[in-house]
């Protein structure tokens, strides 16, 4: 399903990517601008209580994550640096979204929602770290029930709907489920790496 959505988005955004390439715009510039837009929207609009419009702006800037990739491939400018920059700045965007929700919840004296958003923020940083650390050790850890795209799709959708009038408790529950799913993903990745390390050491699988 996700691959089909990405394919559809690529067809829609293709002309934009081609136009930016013709203008000589670097994919890295698009990556930085997109991340800056997400960060500002999340840390300014969410704490102000503008959950719906904040989500709309974040979603629009998040599309640059597809545009920069299309630009890099179509211009032949794919590089290790570009991939590193994209992945690193993604963490800034993710952190800003959950931080914005923490600030919004605190402003509304909703400690439960604030705590769950903070848990999602912390666990969301551990999930990619576990994978990156495993790959740095020559192993793989690409398993888990809560991939980044899934987590963002859920939190942005629910936040936007709450901004349109859905009860706040729906967001609280969603954040709780995301926190649990993220924790399960971390445990899954740890288990996967442990199994690989055990096999490499000659132990039982």
From TrEMBL:
Mg(2+) 1 binds at residues 65, 68, 86. Coiled coil: none annotated. It is found in: Cell membrane. The chain crosses the membrane at residues 20-44, 50-67, 88-107, 113-131, 152-181. GO terms for biological process: phospholipid biosynthetic process. It is an enzyme of class 2 (transferase). Keywords: Cell membrane, Lipid biosynthesis, Lipid metabolism, Magnesium, Membrane, Metal-binding, Phospholipid biosynthesis, Phospholipid metabolism, Transferase, Transmembrane, Transmembrane helix. Its cofactor is Mg(2+). This is Phosphatidylinositol phosphate synthase. InterPro entries: CDP-OH_P_trans, CDP-OH_PTrfase_TM_dom, CDP_ALCOHOL_P_TRANSF_CS, PIP_synthase_PgsA1. It comes from the Bacteria. It is a multi-pass membrane protein. Pathway: Phospholipid metabolism; phosphatidylinositol phosphate biosynthesis; Lipid metabolism. Catalyzes the conjugation of the 1'-hydroxyl group of D-myo-inositol-3-phosphate (also named L-myo-inositol-1-phosphate) with a lipid tail of cytidine diphosphate diacylglycerol (CDP-DAG), forming phosphatidylinositol phosphate (PIP) and CMP. PIP is a precursor of phosphatidylinositol (PI) which is an essential lipid required for cell wall formation. One of its GO terms (molecular function) is phosphotransferase activity, for other substituted phosphate groups. It catalyses: a CDP-1,2-diacyl-sn-glycerol + 1D-myo-inositol 3-phosphate = a 1,2-diacyl-sn-glycero-3-phospho-(1D-myo-inositol-3-phosphate) + CMP + H(+); 1,2-di-(9Z-octadecenoyl)-sn-glycero-3-cytidine-5'-diphosphate + 1D-myo-inositol 3-phosphate = 1,2-di-(9Z-octadecenoyl)-sn-glycero-3-phospho-(1D-myo-inositol-3-phosphate) + CMP + H(+).
